[in-house]
Specification:
The protein is built from nine helices and nine strands. By secondary structure, the protein is of the alpha+beta class. The strands form three sheets. It has a four-stranded mixed β-sheet. The radius of gyration is 25 Å and the shape is globular.
């Protein structure tokens, strides 16, 4: 049976407010949908149908809004549109050139980096994807491992659950985002969100002197990560887009990709060795924290974390499935 969305909402309105017993409602739905929808849409329909419809529509719209807010809690929305990414000639490294326009569909991005506490909830739920410093039997395990690489950060790991997680491979980050029904942002999405509409070197301007107000980096971090969101946010409400920890993104790294990038929703090369990391870290220089700076890595490290994103059309599909 083919029906319009408005017709389905009309039908839902009648079912919601019908005094008939539930079994009778099911029978009516299975045998008389067409006739019912035809009547509701006709000029001879009782005016009360309109009152019922408006009440039902208002209810359904409210439920939909609440569901979207719940699904995107803690995220900022980046509207669909054309954005400039990459550096101007003379301002960036060769792999940041050329500056070019991309079209991005609307998406949401986490306002903060994923924390140690949030990530460990995932580990507990899935019994896998441990950070290197917690991997059972692993050489970097804080309690039993022979390699002391993460041991200097042991106190922070145990006492700062709101610090960004680190010591996770790209695959771990991607798995966490998938568990949350999200994904890693593409490199183009990340750069667009980091810039937050600013053409400057940083989202907060061109002055390196202001870095300390917005980022944890080599000059102020005391060589450790810090609580997420403890510095200033950009115009989109995103924190730590400069410094604290580098962030894995979806794309494989290719130093020439910006010269060959797709113009609509670019997602990086189809294959590659290392993945892109963005934003700099607690150990980074101000140059490494520039919005357009591109870097890559192939394994876990003590200053690489991540945040998640989700496309608006995925949210819309998920919301529709609830009705």
């Amino acid at each position: 049976m083919k029906t319009t969305m408005s017709g389905l909402v009309l039908y839902s309105a009648l079912i919601l407010f019908s005094p008939a017993p539930l079994a009778a409602q099911r029978q009516a739905r299975s045998s008389g949908d067409s006739e019912l929808l035809d009547y509701i849409g006709s000029e001879s329909a009782n005016p009360a149908c309109g009152v019922c419809l408006n009440a039902a529509r208002g209810h359904l719209e409210k439920v939909a809004r609440e569901k979207i807010l719940k699904m995107t809690a803690g995220m900022a929305k980046i509207q669909a549109g054309e954005y400039m990414i990459g550096a101007e000639k003379g301002r960036g490294e060769p792999d940041e050139l050329p500056r070019h326009t991309v079209w991005l569909d609307a998406f949401y991005m986490d306002k903060k980096e994923v924390t140690i506490a949030e990530y460990l909830e995932f580990v507990k739920a899935t019994s896998g994807n441990h950070p290197e410093w917690a991997k059972p039997g692993g050489k970097f395990n804080l309690e039993t491992g022979k390699d002391p690489y993460y041991r200097r950060l042991e106190q922070l790991i145990k006492t700062c659950p709101s610090c960004p997680v680190f010591g996770v491979f790209w695959e771990d980050a991607a798995a966490y985002c998938g568990w949350k029904k999200r994904r890693l942002p593409t490199e183009a999405e990340w750069e667009t969100a980091a810039a937050a509409g600013s053409p400057n070197k940083y989202s907060f301007g061109d002055s390196e002197a202001d870095s300390g107000d917005f980022s944890w980096y080599e000059d102020n971090s005391a060589e450790t990560p810090h609580k997420t969101g403890s510095k200033g946010n950009n115009a989109l409400g995103l924190y730590d887009m400069h410094g604290n920890v580098w962030e894995w993104v979806q794309d494989f790294y290719d130093k020439t990709y910006y010269g060959n990038s797709l113009r609509k929703n670019p997602a990086g090369p189809a294959t590659g060795r290392d993945h892109v990391i963005r934003g700099g870290s607690w150990a980074a220089s101000t140059e490494e924290m520039a919005v357009t700076n591109r870097a890559s890595y192939g394994k876990a490290n003590d200053d690489i974390g991540f945040r998640c994103a989700v496309s608006e059309n995925v949210i819309s599909r998920s919301e529709r499935k609830g009705f």
